[in-house]
Amino acid sequence: MAKTFVGVVSSDKADKTIVVKVATRKTHPIYKKQFTSTNKFIAHDEKNEASIGDKVSISETRPLSARKRFILEKVLEKAPIRHVEAMPPEVAEVVGEKQDTEEEK
User: What was the pLDDT predicted at 103?
Assistant: First the structure.
């Protein structure tokens, strides 16, 4: 039986690959204090549908690469805020987008 985990995507920079952080609650055997333990799993995302912050379900499969042992089953919940990087001014000029600069204000 394949293991399945639910976690949050922490990186989607590689093509068709995501890094998923899975948090589990554990209890210390002697002190009985609960703590959170996180594991990072590299998973295959065939359609590049998951992005940073999405809550996803991954399941175990045959080894796909040196560190990839999981595949994306489905995106359970999309991230509320998308991470968008600002363009440098020299790139924005080439693309044709207007950005506010200090001289214009």
Answer: 58
CA distance 6 to 70: 12
Residue 69, pLDDT score: 97
CA neighbor of 5 nearest in space, from 71, 54, 50? 71
Thinking of the domain 4-95, which architecture would CATH place it in?
A: Beta Barrel (2.40)
Residue 52's pLDDT band (boundaries 50, 70, 90)? very high
What is the per-residue pLDDT for 80?
86
Please provide residue 95's backbone torsions phi and psi, each rounded to the nearest 5 degrees.
-75, -30
d(CA 87, CA 53): 21
Give the start-to-end residue ranges of the domains of the chain: 4-95
